[in-house]
Amino acid sequence: MVTWIVLAVVLFALVVLGLAVRPVLARLPRLRRAAVALQGRQAEADALRSTAEALQQRAEALQARAATAQERVALIKAKRGK
C-alpha cells in the first residue's frame, strides 16, 4: 500500500515537473534566435568600437598636425612683422 502511495506521489511530481518545463522548452527556438541576433549585434558593436578607436587616433593625429601648422603660421606672421 505504501509503495502505491510513493509511486503516485513520484508520478504526480513528474507530471508537475513536465508541465513546468513544457513552456520553457517551447520558448527555446525563440531564445536561440534572439541569442544569435544578439551575437550579431555584438559583432557589429565590436567592429564599430574598433572603427571609433581608429577614428579617434586619426583625429588626435590631425589635431597635433593642426597645432603644428598653427605654430608655423604664428612664426611666419612673427617674421613678417619684423
Structure description:
The protein has 82 residues and is mainly α. The protein contains one helix and no strands. It has one helix at 2-81.
Structural class: mainly alpha
Q: Could you tell me the radius of gyration in angstroms?
A: 34 Å
- Poorly predicted runs are none
Order of helices and strands: H
What is the count of DSSP helices, taking H or I runs of 4+ residues? 1
Structure characteristics:
rod-shaped; coiled coil; about 80 residues
Briefly say what this structure is.
The chain is mainly alpha-helical and 82 residues long. It contains one helix and no strands.
How do the helices and strands line up, and which of them pair or pack?
Blueprint: H1 2-81
